[in-house]
Design goal:
This protein has helices at 23-26, 34-43, 45-58, 171-176, 223-233, 287-292; strands spanning 2-6, 10-15, 18-21, 62-63, 69-70, 79-82, 100-102, 108-109, 114-116, 124-135, 151-163, 182-190, 201-206, 209-215, 241-243, 259-264, 269-275, 281-282, 301-303. The chain is of the alpha+beta class.
Length: 310
């Protein structure tokens, strides 16, 4: 099942190329807004699934192309992100030690929305294509062998980054938790529709040019281990997000006017825009392009405020 929010945050289920409004089905779930409505549905999904399926079977829906899609998880309680969690196409000799960071829920935006690059002296702005896991039930100190039973579903996720800010030992918060730096969408797909989350292609385009193209089979610490590790630190609740990391070799600069598209196999494809009022520019080369030229430094800023003096 593919769950969406659309227009004024009506909850719907995708039915082919149509969206069926299911607000009448879920309206009795205690909630104060769309954020905890979807969380409440996830928590009670076993009870509501049959009703939702009937509503989809009986309902004609409206054309998907006629609605405005919203982020399917507009206000998750927690966003945990795995750090350096790919083998980078075999270029790493061993997995990096398991590690992660928080991204603030307020960073979430949805399809067609805009990532805004702030007026800060970042060396580069990037967005990492990721598969994100959505938690289905309260999870605390979960063993890896049991972890997949805590997965409700999956969603496309972008981890926006403002890199190079100082001080270096205080980087993750100011680099990762900027407003608009967590685009997700177009829908939340339930776990039963993804046969193996560790065998999915992940692709990201910038202005139609393919930049990231990798497979989740390259993941260093797989999902069960990530859930085990995260829940050894704090409790995850229904509707929380665990982003599984990225293969960094295709990362490139995000700039004003860009249209970025992400597609994780089985999770749909969505697009968002990038705005930078300072109109800063960078080369369009990827990290791999830089490495092939013998550079181990980020793509330098070419023009605009904070560009290095030449």
């Amino acid at each position: 099942m593919k769950l969406v929010y659309f227009n004024d945050f009506r909850l719907g289920v995708l039915k082919g190329d149509a969206v069926v409004d299911v607000m009448a089905v879920v309206g009795d779930i205690p909630h104060t807004g769309p954020g905890n409505l979807i969380g409440g549905l996830i928590e009670r999904f076993a009870t509501y699934r049959g009703r939702l399926e009937k509503a989809v079977t009986d309902g004609a829906g409206v054309p998907l192309a006629s609605v405005r899609l919203r982020p399917p998880l507009p206000r998750p309680g927690t966003i945990d992100c795995m750090a350096v969690n790919y083998m980078e196409d075999g270029t790493r000799s061993a997995p990096a030690p398991i590690n992660g960071f928080h991204k603030l829920p307020g960073a979430v935006i949805g399809p067609g929305d805009t990532m805004v690059l702030p007026d800060v002296p970042a060396t580069i702005f990037e967005g990492e294509a990721e598969l994100a896991v959505v938690i289905g039930k309260r999870a605390s100190r979960v063993a890896a062998k049991d972890a997949m039973s805590y997965v409700f579903g999956y969603v496309n996720f972008i981890d926006g980054s403002a890199r190079g800010l100082v001080p270096a030992n205080n980087s993750f918060f100011q680099m990762k938790s900027r407003d608009t730096f967590a685009p997700i969408g177009p829908y939340l797909v339930t776990a039963d529709e993804i046969a193996d989350p560790h065998r999915l292609s992940v692709r990201l385009w910038v202005n139609g040019e393919l930049k990231q193209n990798f497979n989740t089979s390259d993941m260093a610490h797989q999902i069960p281990r990530c859930i085990e590790w995260a829940t050894s630190i704090h409790t995850l609740e229904p509707g929380d997000i665990l982003a599984t990391g990225t293969n960094h070799r295709g990362l490139s600069s995000f700039q004003d006017g860009d249209k970025v598209e992400l597609e994780v196999e089985g999770c749909g494809r969505f697009a968002f825009n990038v705005k930078d009022e300072l109109k800063r520019t960078w080369s369009r080369e990827t990290r791999l392009d830089r490495q092939n030229k013998g550079f181990d430094t980020p793509t330098p800023q070419l023009t605009g405020k904070y560009a290095p003096a030449r």
